[in-house]
Amino acid sequence: MTAATTRSTCPYCGVGCGVLLTPDGQGRLTVKGDPDHPANFGRLCSKGSALAETVGLSHRLMTPRVNGTDTDWDSALDHVAKTFSKTIAEHGPDSVAFYVSGQMLSEDYYVANKLMKGFIGSANIDTNSRLCMSSTVAGHKRAFGTDTVPGTYEDLENADLIVLTGSNLAWCHPVLYQRILAARKSRGTKLVVIDPRRTASCDGADLHLALRAGSDVALFNALLAEIDRRGLLDRAYIDAYVSGADNAIAAAKASDPAITGLSDGDLKTFFDLWIGTEKVVTIFSQGVNQSSSGTDKVNAILNCHLATGRIGRLGMGPFSVTGQPNAMGGREVGGLANMLACHLDLENADHREAVQGFWASPAMPDKAGLKAVDMFRALGEGRIKALWVIHSNPAVTLPDADRVRGAVEGCDFVVVSDITERTDTARGADVLLPAAAWAEKSGTVTNSDRTVSRQRAVLAAPGIAQPDWWILAEVAKRMGFDGFDWTSPAEIFREYATLSGIAGSFGRDFDISDFKDICDADYDTLSPFRWPQSAAKQGGRFFADGGFYHADGKAKMLALTPRDPASMPDEKRPFRLNTGRLRDQWHTMTRTALSPRLSAHLPEPFVDMHPKDADRLGLKPADLVRLTSPHGTSVLRLRRTTDVAPGDLFVPMHWTGETAPSARIDALVAPVTDPISGQPESKASTVAAEPFPAK
Ligand code: SF4
């Protein structure tokens, strides 16, 4: 590492790999994996390796713009502050909303949350992380009493069995998958993949269970019932640390494993492996979360680990991996509409009072705000009159995307902070605010195993672009609010760390108050650390010896009944539509599409269909297919493949109105959500398919 090299963190997924950045003085970078970062130890995937190709000036927004006219910061910020204040004065605090992003740094996220919840006095701040892992948050809270991830990445190298369920880790968290492959080589770790689709993660797996879409609760209920039948419940752990086990086991026994569509032989192989291997890690991701029963799916997995005491010890536990680089940080700062900062509860009066006192805030909401899908429904109905979108593109990525785009275009006042104006959402904005991009801003992010890492600015922001915390604080000050006078991210971090100490005093899990007095120099050189910091939680582990956060100190097992997805295939819409990520693209491609080698991997949108279905529809390879749902249509190129089962379709999620106007996939997806988490069911829509043009 030379003097000109700076440590930072990759912005593309929740693995949170460390990178070494060396600027060339001409606005470009060299990027290498950081050999000392505990997430990757020098490894990078294709996206991380191509980071240097995505930092140029192409399509950058460089000056504020109001109603289509470039302007200066003072004019733009005054206009935003005045319009938000006027809207709140006329229609109340719940008439405004922020829609933020797991791409934001924790310091930026903290400021947005403080402004909305503590000063505007509404909880109408939600995030695109609602689409990513909110079912896990809800499942953790139901089981543990807080949103605590028990596992760490070292567990992957110390497990004897790894189960990936609803997770194409090989493409979506590639460096973690590399770590698993290395463990398989050195230790002989077994790998089971549970996914309706055959993905890259299945290559070389010991078992692939192609279960029926949405039947995860039935599968893990069956596992729990089998653990009980074999007499292998950990009664000592349950008696000491778990409530609800009897009811959960009774419900599991009452549920029908045939719902999964799996053969008795495959089920037995899975049960033998899972039950017979003490050191088992069950990794889950969007295939579990993005479901109308996502929270139940999460709890079905947690039930099995709690019933066997396989939690909180090296090499075992349930492990949710987050999609976005700072989805976890967003959870920590309370960036979801139903959370308070630092894992405190919005609906707990003591917690509210403590945070309000700390912030010296004039107003605090006492109930949850609108979750993402409901927020944009309210926007379309005129109940939200002013919206600020930060680093997100909901007009493409939310379900029923055409309606969302219409709602954005029809809203009285929309502000978008982003690095580019070339998004479907920015096109509908009244005010565009130029934000600093990844390599131009400083702060912290938290990855999937609770490791907090620094992101550091190494390039100058172009034009007059500014970091998000500065933009938010300037608007807050112009709205007349105190407490937004920071001059650096380090000051915000100190305030946030101090607040986390209050959370710790309530016995909450998230406490980084060891850093409340960190000086600027130490913040600049801060090494990655995993919370909790306290000596009582040796090794950063939770729950080996109980210590759960419900009032009785116990975890809860839940009695769960499997539910079908909200919409089932029928004669009119016989196909089940699954959506997901590609290996070399990130979200709506605003950055990854700038890299020719990333774009070369799979250069255009497509639909995967089983050859039997394609034959029935008279479709040849590379023909165009039109998919239709009650919400929209999409035209895509056909890929005939047995990777999907007959009746199932898979479509990547990345293309937008900017890059492929006919292929906006979320235009097809119904705005159906999990009743507890509010997470949309993005992987089980029903659609019709036909040749395009019609034959
Ligand atoms: Fe970046 Fe994720 Fe790849 Fe690591 S695995 S290099 S964090 S995209």
TrEMBL record:
Residue ranges of the TM segments: none
GO cellular component: membrane; oxidoreductase complex
GO terms classed as biological process: cellular respiration; nitrate assimilation
Entry cofactors: [4Fe-4S] cluster; Mo-bis(molybdopterin guanine dinucleotide)
Molecular function, one GO term: molybdopterin cofactor binding
Domain of life: Bacteria
4Fe-4S Mo/W bis-MGD-type domain segment(s): 3-59
Keywords: 4Fe-4S, Iron, Iron-sulfur, Metal-binding, Molybdenum, Nitrate assimilation, Oxidoreductase
Protein family membership: Belongs to the prokaryotic molybdopterin-containing oxidoreductase family. NasA/NapA/NarB subfamily.
Name the UniProt record assigns to this protein: Assimilatory nitrate reductase (NADH) alpha subunit apoprotein
Organism annotation: Thalassococcus halodurans
Entire-sequence positions represented here: 1 to 695 of 873
